[in-house]
Specification:
The complex is a heterodimer of chains A (about 250) and B (about 160).
Chain A (H helix, E strand, L loop, with lengths): L2 H21 L8 H31 L7 H6 L19 H23 L4 H29 L3 H14 L11 H6 L4 H18 L22 H15 L6
Chain B lengths: L1 E2 L3 H11 L12 H4 L2 E6 L4 E5 L8 H15 L5 E5 L12 H10 L1 E2 L21 E5 L7 E6 L5 E5 L3
Parallel strand pairs in B: 1-2, 3-4, 5-8
Antiparallel strand pairs in B: 2-3, 6-7, 7-8
Classes of the chains: A mainly alpha (about 250), B alpha/beta (about 160).
Amino acid sequence: MNPLIQFTLFLADSNLILSQKNAEWCGHGPILEQDIAITNITLDLLGQARYFYQYAAELMNQAGHTHITEDSLAYLRTEREFKNLLLCEQPNGDWAQTVLRQFFYSVYQQSLYQQILQQSNSQLSAIAEKSLKEITYHIKWSSEWVVRLGDGTPLSHHKMLQAIKALWPYTGEFFTPTDFEKEIIPIDYEKLKMQWIDSVQNVLEEAGLPMPQNIFMHTGGKLGSHTEHLGYILAEMQYLQRTYPNAQW
Amino acid sequence: MHNGNNMPQTQEILTILGQVCDPEIPVLSIIDLGIIRQVKISDNQIEIIITPTYSGCPAMDAISIDIKLKLIEHGYSQVKITSILSPAWTTDWITETGKRKLKAYGIAPPQYSGSPAKNVECPQCHSQHTKLLSQFGSTACKALYQCNDCKEPFDYFKCH
């Protein structure tokens, strides 16, 4: 498959899977305002995913595939075909784990999209431009939570430590480019990593939380090798279209 | 906004579009909201170019359908809606009329994105003495505030 299509699907899948996970909080948030906040972020992620899927579908149909749509890409691909980051499919855990996952992802998204914005691909940069305005809010919200819990009670601090321990091993993949990434657009991965580490370190410091060092990092999500969690997510998300093909609201 | 060559007809279309309301904030028309970017008129088709407010805003699908229905009502059956992302929509495109309507409806209008941030004014008692309750309100475009003087909670249309 053409590297541009793979890259676009990687962006789409990461957003879709994280939005699907966050959506599980709908009706279960710790208080009403935060329930609404996490679901609003979820909607933004889903909307951004749709732009990427629509663009991927257009590219695929031009390349000779037939009848590819945003829906067929989301609902009819198998686990091995999904290219999302491993971080996005990790369990919600408690509120600490959910807000930390969002924070790690949003900071990465911001640096990556700022680079995409400078690229010559006009559709990807238009989506990046639109998304960056929303991501600013996501970072503000999630970083405030990281500080509030990290610098909160001994219990909330402990939960934040647990969340860092659970999620950190999935962040190395952000900066490990696959072949399709190397082939399409010149992303500066060193710069991406430095910006991410910098922003994360500032917030963790303010929260009184340690930066993990020399931790083993998992990779493979971008190439379709996932943790055991993705299969369950897809089983639930794709159930309706798999059972009743072409069902509509 | 760029209009097609056919000015009188473009004006007529814009007047019709002025009757299409945002389903979430029904006091605002889509013209007030600043999401109509261009109207293209050709012999047999009208193309309306719109830009989304927020990526995940569920109102966008409803708005596209409402535009088509409203134009059909006025005898335009061949309507194409095209969505463009760049330049990205900003609350600065909400018209002055739109901002007045928002305030009268009880939603504090957005501040200009370039100007230094001021206190959000309570749309009920006009006090500047207000506080943020939640960055995210009842829809993606709003934050929840409360007035410290009249105690009334209210929505603020976030600067975007």
